[in-house]
Fold this protein.
Amino acid sequence: YYSSNMSASRSVDGRLALVTGGSSGIGRETCKVLAREGATVVVTCIDEAGAQETVTLLEGSNHTAMRYDVTQFDSGKELLKSIIQKYGRPPNILVNSAGITTAIGLLDETPETFQRVLDVNLKGTVFTIQAVCRELVAANMPGSMVNISSRTVGRPLKNISAYVASKAGVDGITKCFAKEMGPHGIR
């Protein structure tokens, strides 16, 4: 749900937001809303050209596109290093929207396709939260983490078992991170 009448306490004006999977779909639309509400947006995707295209659609200035492979642990560290170098601070908003699915029945799912979905959807979420939260904690800054899950966790459909499993993991890890990071002002 989005309301254009955001309260001042929920304002993103002046904040720095990092959006994974920002080249299309939910990620791109999230970037547009954040920019319209006054945030500076770092749009990331494994396809930097797609991320750059999103930047051209955003209101305001000083947004940037960066290539980021959410499946690579060290890639998150490098991304945060680049963001801090450019903006002088870590992002205090993270939206994990990078995600993939396959339309493969459970009996036809291969270890490789199953693992790829888990790598992008679950490990990518964890790795990115870790990278951002480490920097926020070190800087003693509050922050907001938003992880995109799916209603299919509670209402599964056929032929997307890897996707449902990955998003159930995202739900669980989100609750764990909230408990661990809450004392640091990170929600």
Q: What stands out?
A: The chain has one domain: 14-184.
